[in-house]
RNA sequence: GGCCCUAUGGUCAAGCGGUCAAGACGCCGCCCUCUCAAGGCGGAAUCGGGAGUUCGAUUCUCCCUAGGGUCACCA
């Protein structure tokens, strides 16, 4: 066997792409990449009842958006296809027959009703599971019954005594008594393999060297090993991952908030930020680095950095990663993200200068992409009935009366400015403050309130006025002046 | 309930016998400042409990406790 590391992401198209799945895919991808190996995509569609339309497309789209490029898969082929389990049915059947022939599996004719009755009867007992009713049927007789059309499943014949142990790359040595293991179903009566069986067969066929999956599979791993042994296949390296929990310590689910990749993207999170957060949720680089691009992850990732304890998904920290990624973007690229909302607010096309300014204003303040419109809301129009109390600011030493005076003084100067540029407006206002012997805030505050009508804006008076344009700025000053005048008389 | 896994601040976590127990998010304060952010500086906050082993346990062992996982013709 070659020493090339091969991992696979094997989702089943039964729903949206959960962040837990995505994190598994990321780790699988990284384990392969960090050692120059291959990352395989395999679709596990053995549950015909739970197929969800569109789920497959979502898987491809998510992988694509995240940059987790696979080397082999249903869409691009590869040497060990097909990569869709429903296209490999014959093969599983043959493999199951092999096991029967070797005495490692047997046909079981128990009905669903009988099994249900069994479960009901076993409630509270220590060993719950199949009672091995068909385990000792004569193989030839069983084969004949099956051939005659009697529905049956194929079960794995577990050893009744002894122990099975395996070494997991993150959890270490794990030992389980064989008496704990159920004679699990390998092939269902509809001819489809179960997940456990198809997994082993496919992982072997596809030369997967590292089986990476959630720790919920930890306790069923001994069954896998027994299967590998029954086949005489080499056992892969297991890498079990700690689970992701919600705020309440329960397994992360919809009720904790958005848990699907698509949902998060729609909520304004960047794929880079989501991936970055997921990377650190269960893995540590060992140093204090926190921001990782995919390329950087490919350099830094180590299996030994994986954590064993479950991690709580923290939306607050995800938000911080999102902000960090947003701030780190090239200003031009960030500005482009603002174009749509800016033009909506403006009601017309934006100039390059306006776009640049808007980007500069929002980039350090944005938490999510979806917040852009709200950040630009002040641009739309001056709220007609904003609270005049906003003019009163203790630290700035301003109030409605002083603001009125200030605005009256400022108005003419602004109207007379040679050009309406950020620099010029800025210079003018600073000069005005100096001239009047007041602090900058005493001219900036009233102006900002007068033209925005808001206590909080994504920028100061200068930026606001610049983006508003001279005409609109003066119009808003007049509007505010009118209201301020009405206060007195 | 049986079995398996886990256990450092509210959260993610470094630590791998001797540390004043990193760092980050969040929180609080200060600075900067035309508001809010961003940025800078500082602060509060952690080894679940009990036995061992050892000169010395956060670190090793055992027990307890707590949390999680798993016991399907689902993956």
> Class by helix and strand content?
mainly alpha
Characterize the overall form. elongated
Note poorly predicted spans.
Answer: none
* Proportion of beta-strand residues: 5-15%
Sheet with the most strands: spatial strand order: 3-4-7
Could you report the average pLDDT, rounded to the nearest whole number? 94
N-end to C-end Cα span? 93 Å
The helix tally amounts to: 20
Largest sheet: 3 strands, antiparallel
**DSSP, total strands:** 11
Helix content: 40-55%
Q: Please state the CA-atom Rg, rounded to the nearest Å.
A: 33 Å
For this entry, give a set of tags.
elongated; two-stranded parallel ribbon; RNA-binding; 489 residues
Strand-helix topology:
Blueprint: E1 6-9, H1 19-34, E2 38-41, H2 55-66, H3 89-101, E3 105-108, H4 112-122, H5 139-147, E4 153-156, E5 163-168, E6 172-177, E7 185-187, H6 195-205, E8 210-214, H7 221-231, E9 237-241, E10 244-245, H8 261-266, H9 271-280, H10 294-300, E11 311-312, H11 315-328, H12 331-346, H13 352-362, H14 372-375, H15 377-380, H16 400-416, H17 422-436, H18 440-452, H19 461-468, H20 470-488
Parallel strand pairs: 1-2, 8-9, 10-11
Antiparallel strand pairs: 3-4, 4-7, 5-6
Helix pairs in contact: 1-10, 9-11, 12-13, 16-18, 16-20, 17-18, 17-19, 18-19, 18-20
The chain binds one RNA strand of 75 nucleotides through α4, β6, α6, β11 and α11.
């Amino acid at each position: 066997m070659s020493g090339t590391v091969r991992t696979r992401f094997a989702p089943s198209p039964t729903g949206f792409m959960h962040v837990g799945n995505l994190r598994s895919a990321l780790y699988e991808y990284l384990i392969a990449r960090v050692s120059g190996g291959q990352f395989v995509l395999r679709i596990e569609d053995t549950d015909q009842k739970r197929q969800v339309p569109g789920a497959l497309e979502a898987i491809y789209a998510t992988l694509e958006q995240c940059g987790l490029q696979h080397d082999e898969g249903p869409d691009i082929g590869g040497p060990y296809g097909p990569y869709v389990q429903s296209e490999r049915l014959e093969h599983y059947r043959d493999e199951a027959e092999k096991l029967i022939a070797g005495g490692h599996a047997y046909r079981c004719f128990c009905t669903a009703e009988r099994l249900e009755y069994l479960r009901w009867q076993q409630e509270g007992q220590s060993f719950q599971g199949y009672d091995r009713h068909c385990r000792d049927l004569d193989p030839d007789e069983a084969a004949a019954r099956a051939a005659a059309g009697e529905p049956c499943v194929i079960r794995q014949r577990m050893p009744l005594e002894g122990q099975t142990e395996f070494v997991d790359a993150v959890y270490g040595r794990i030992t389980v008594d064989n008496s704990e293991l159920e004679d699990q179903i390998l092939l269902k009566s509809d001819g489809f393999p179960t997940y456990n069986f198809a997994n082993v067969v496919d992982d072997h066929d596809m030369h997967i060297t590292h089986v990476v999956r959630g720790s919920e599979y930890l306790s069923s791993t001994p069954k896998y090993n027994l299967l590998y042994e029954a086949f005489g296949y080499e056992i892969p390296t297991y890498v079990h991952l700690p689970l992701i929990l919600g705020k309440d310590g329960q397994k992360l689910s919809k009720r904790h908030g958005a848990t699907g990749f698509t949902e998060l993207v729609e909520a304004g999170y960047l794929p880079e930020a989501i991936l970055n957060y997921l990377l650190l949720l269960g893995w540590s680089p060992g140093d204090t680095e926190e921001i990782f691009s995919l390329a950087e992850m490919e350099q830094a990732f180590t299996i030994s950095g994986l954590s064993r304890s479950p991690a709580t998904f923290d939306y607050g920290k995800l938000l911080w990663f999102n902000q960090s990624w947003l701030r780190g973007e090239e200003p031009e690229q960030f500005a482009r993200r603002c174009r749509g909302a800016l033009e909506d607010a403006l009601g017309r096309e934006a100039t390059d200068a306006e776009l640049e300014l808007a980007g500069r204003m929002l980039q350090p303040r944005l938490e999510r992409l979806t917040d852009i419109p709200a950040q630009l809301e002040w641009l739309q129009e001056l709220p007609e009935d904003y609270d005049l109390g906003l003019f009163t600011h203790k630290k700035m030493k301003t109030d409605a009366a002083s603001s009125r005076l200030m605005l009256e003084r400022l108005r003419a100067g602004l109207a007379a400015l040679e050009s309406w540029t950020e620099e010029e407006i800025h210079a003018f206002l600073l000069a005005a403050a100096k001239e009047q012997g007041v602090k900058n805030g005493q001219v900036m505050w009233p102006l900002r309130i007068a033209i925005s009508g808001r206590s909080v804006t994504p920028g100061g008076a200068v930026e606001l006025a610049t983006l508003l344009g001279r005409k609109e700025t003066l119009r808003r000053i007049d509007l505010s002046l009118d209201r301020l005048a009405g206060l007195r008389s």
